[in-house]
Amino acid sequence: MCELFCLSSRHPTRATFSLKRFAAHGAPDSRNVDGWGIAFHEGRDVRLYKEPEPAGDSPWVTFIEQRALATGHLISHIRRATCGANSHANTQPFARELGGRMHLFAHNGGFDDIAASFAAAPHRFRPVGETDSEMAFCLLLDRLAPLWKGAAAPTLKKRLAAVTDFAAEMRPLGIANFLYSDGEFVFGHGHRRTQADGIVAPPGLWFRHRHRGATTSAPAESGVTIHDHLAGEAQEMALLASVPVTAGHWRPLAEGEIVVVAAGEVVPS
């Protein structure tokens, strides 16, 4: 299955932090060999890098690490194709403009018969590629679009209600683990995934919160080092992933649970 990853931090963090560890999930000898993507939020816009080739041997991964981009908001995806060809258009994360800002979406799973549901009504947002995941993103944006018509951003309560209704609609269609970001909040929805024993069951997404004091050095975690962009600042980090990618305590999300994170912490809903 595909692999999802999200970082949210209080202060900008260099994007070298776990890229190699995460890219190893897409190594050429693994199952996830059909593409990868990583998106860095920069204000209302995003830097999006993706390619329909294995992440494990991609020179672009090395390039991104060498650039050492600092961000407080990152989403990444490793693809195993189940719907749609290996193409740039079908590679995640997907990005669209809504309300004068870029929104991101990455999905792990599959939605049966979503094409029929999508074709049943007109849509403002339409997929560029052929994947069920992108159709789902377009459906979500159609639900959210009325909330973003005004000059002010909608309340978190309204955004969460739309995401919750969308997730409930998607779960009966298949496996619906996803990360959705509007540049301010990240919504992580955990469902089910194929576990190590071959059984499809929860958890489909894991969460970890991490606090680092201003005087604490950046530790290596299972070979992964987190480099903070601002020295001498206490740091809060929220991580979401299909499977834990660092050492430390990760909490499995319950089936159908949605976690909202911003500035490195869980946002009460």
Describe the structure.
By secondary structure, the chain is an alpha+beta fold. The chain has one domain (3-266): Aminohydrolase, N-terminal nucleophile (Ntn) domain (Glutamine Phosphoribosylpyrophosphate, subunit 1, domain 1), CATH 3.60.20.10. The chain is 18% helix and 36% strand. The radius of gyration is 17 Å and the shape is globular. Residues 217-225 have low confidence and may be disordered.
Could you give a short description of this structure?
Helices cover 18% and strands 36% of the residues. With 269 residues, it is α+β, with helices and mostly antiparallel strands.
Shape: globular
User: Which parts are unreliable, with pLDDT below 50 for 5 consecutive residues or more?
Assistant: 217-225
Helices and strands, in order, run as EHEEHEEEHHHEEEEEEEEEEE
The chain-level mean pLDDT equals 84
CATH superfamily: Aminohydrolase, N-terminal nucleophile (Ntn) domain
State the CATH topology.
Glutamine Phosphoribosylpyrophosphate, subunit 1, domain 1
Number of discrete helical segments: 5
Assign a percent range to the helix content: 10-25%
Overall SS class: alpha+beta
- Gyration radius (Cα, Å) is 17 Å
